[in-house]
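Colleagues,

Please find the record for the two-part complex below.
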Amino acid sequence: MAGGGPLIEARGLTKRFGDFTAVDGIDFAVERGETFGFLGPNGAGKTSTMRMISAVSPVTSGTLRVLGHDPGEDGAEIKSRMGVVPQQDTLDFELTVYENILVYGRYFGIPKDVIKSRAEELLDFVQLNERRESKVEPLSGGMKRRLTIARALVNDPELLLLDEPTTGLDPQARHVLWDRLYRLKQQGVTQVLTTHYMDEAEQLCDRLVVMDQAKIVAEGSPRELIAQYVQREVVELRFPDGTPPNGNLEGIGDRQEVLADRVLIGTDDGDALAHSVHELGIPIESVLVRRSTLEDVFLTLTGRTLVD
Amino acid sequence: MAAVAHAPVRVQSPLARTAAVTEWHARSYRRTWRATITTAFLNPVFFLLSVGVLLGQLIDDDQAQLGGLSYVEFVAPGLLAATAMQMGANDAMWPVMAGIRWLRTYHAVLATPVRVGELVLGTMGWAAIRVFSAAAIFTAVAAVGGAVPSPLGVLAPFAALLVGLAFNAPIAAFSASLEGGDDGWFPALNRFVLIPMFLFAGTFFPVSQLPNWLEPVAWVTPLWNGVELCRMLTTGDVDALLAVVHVVYLLAFVVVGAYVAIRIHRRALLK
């Protein structure tokens, strides 16, 4: 299967549960070879979208094509060419690390000897070969995640779906995982992931959509989104009594966001702005000048932070 | 971006996928079999010894009600069917709940080309293997102990298999329907449905002993139909027409149960 149109294409994609609209008429397309992200807070509709793509959740309305097929009609065909890493681990704790891959591979009809050699490669790839005969239960969260990824790769998928791949992992485990996902990208595996971590989206995604309240509110590469919606830099101000003195900051910078514990000011020249804030003479506890991130994009678009 | 050679898509039969699900359960079971060997094997044999042999010695052999059988010959097929019921039922309770809601292992299966029907039938397939093996061992032990007078007894494990599935399939449907994951229903099912059947539906005494109004209630239970079928086979006292009625009745529970179970699993898993 070479070339052709996008690997995933959605038009007016909608998912309703009773009266509740989880996904509200979204459009997007994922091209072969790219890493595509859904960024948004919990409850934005990311997981519902992923479940529709993975052909386990019927589309309420709109159209969805995955790997050239309709998930409602050819679910098994799509699933045979796709790998899924769900948000909650679904490993079998009664089985060993190796058996988890073996059993999973059988569902795809892969012969045992093929699975065996493939499991060898995959466990090397996710750095779990020493734990091959270990049970799953005692593995760390990061190891379980890596095993889930290895399992999802057993059918050599063209498309890998990852639903919040690093949620709940410690920073070191996250970096190991990011590194593996980057390697997969280099090998040409198209990846679609959801995350509510902006650093993860920046690190991994070629292109992403920002979701909020069941809708897509922005779309582009991380760099494009930052260029389009926010200034180059952000000055973060914290005040001794927590809240900023009323009115004193008016007219400073291009954009201000007042959060519970700090004020963020968007500007193209952070140092100059920090300097002029000092000259106001108001009591300030700390000033931090940093580059704008996707978090700032999200804040600008929705007035809320990603992780509450 | 360099093109990657992906493994060719494999065409696979529904039967192979169903078997892959059964294989999964078999592998999982290899680590937990010690815990279940008691219910599957020791308990029924203990019952046979205590009730069938030791208590049975107090009962005269030529009781008209027992149709000329010794008590142990009478009770052995009853225990066979009741064990099959208990195993078939238990396999459809907590394990199904765990697969759908607690461990979510069923969701992992459905991320692959396996369809819901294959998942449900493959899981039932494993219950079938378990019930049949336990029934075969029990029948052999009972035969060695002289509680199986007829050579037709070799067919009794198949009858027991039917009993096990007649409980397994509808209860799998019930377990999948428990939306909130409330496993408090399972002890209730045991206490108010399965154990009363075990005690009153022909395992230990002929249902003609029951009060007249209660006897027809026993007739509609799948366990009574199973006990009667097993008893015909182990004693060799077969009434062909009645045997067919029992088989069809039990099969109806299996087929309708499996059909409903697949539908409810689909609703629970593919939201």
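Chain B has one domain: 15-26+35-269.

Comments are welcome before we finalize the supplementary table.
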